[in-house]
Amino acid sequence: MSRREAIDRSNPRPKSMTRRIAFQGEPGAYSHQACRETHPEMEAVPCGTFEDVIEAVRNGDADLAMLPVENSTYGRVADIHHLLPESGLHIVEEAFVRVHINLLALPGTRLEQVKRAMSHTVLLGQCRDFLNRHGIERVTGADTAGSARHVAEAGDPSLGALASELAAEIYGLEVLARHIEDHGHNTTRFLVMAREPDLSRRAERMMTTFVFQVRNIPAALYKALGGFATNGVNMTKLESYMLDGTFTATQFYADIEGHPEDRNVRLALEELAYFSSHVNVLGVYPAGRGRPVL
């Protein structure tokens, strides 16, 4: 089954009647699950890389991009923080998706028949207790949905896959064991991005995401962030990463609660700009369901 046939089977809406949302990975990936949970009315379009997802929106092949940025167990997704500022896209939503891991196999297979399980190395590491308890050998695959597709094509009842229930649905596999992850809190945060920003929306809880580089003066970071404390703006995330592979150029990524038009947020951003050489607001959007309340 081709990638296009699989995605059409999972969401059989006429292309002319639906908008499109792009994600990275095979049909049945957890990013695909995020698309279905967040925008079930849209056609989900699989892409090979994060760059391909971004390009699909930029050139009009898709209306929205679904991009994972961090996982509660494994931290931030590599490369995403470098891609977002240069993407030319704008964050319009966030989504928190619970990652439930399931053991999938050919229809009619019994659990005791499965001797090996294939998946992305991260998921294999998250199910050590279950796999060890059942004496199942871990086999590293390229990704979760691709592993499910491989199991369906291989026709070997001794080989299972660790993936989503959506992957089982798409590739005609049976769920032998549900929610086998070692920790019950594993959640991935996704950002939904569009070609144009939307600053008009207002919700009880708004989020603003931006990147910045501080000026080369003593205590620049301390001074740049001081305005958020003095104006009572809650900063929920602050991360740094190097630019261009050097130790001398650092960019900061931040999430704050509030809207840039709120007086306290406006004052804090003005103070940030004074002590920064560059500030780029990536998006203003309502807080997603599942965002912790501090």
From TrEMBL:
This is prephenate dehydratase. Keywords: Amino-acid biosynthesis, Aromatic amino acid biosynthesis, Lyase, Phenylalanine biosynthesis. InterPro entries: ACT-like_dom_sf (IPR045865), ACT_dom (IPR002912), Chor_mutase/pphenate_deHydtase (IPR008242), Preph_deHydtase (IPR001086), Preph_deHydtase_CS (IPR018528). Pathway: Amino-acid biosynthesis; L-phenylalanine biosynthesis; phenylpyruvate from prephenate: step 1/1. The keyword NAD does not apply. Residues 20-195 form the Prephenate dehydratase domain. The record marks T188 as: Essential for prephenate dehydratase activity. GO terms for biological process: L-phenylalanine biosynthetic process. Its EC number is 4.2.1.51. SUPFAM superfamilies: ACT-like (SSF55021), Periplasmic binding protein-like II (SSF53850). It comes from the Bacteria. It catalyses: prephenate + H(+) = 3-phenylpyruvate + CO2 + H2O. GO terms for cellular component: cytoplasm.
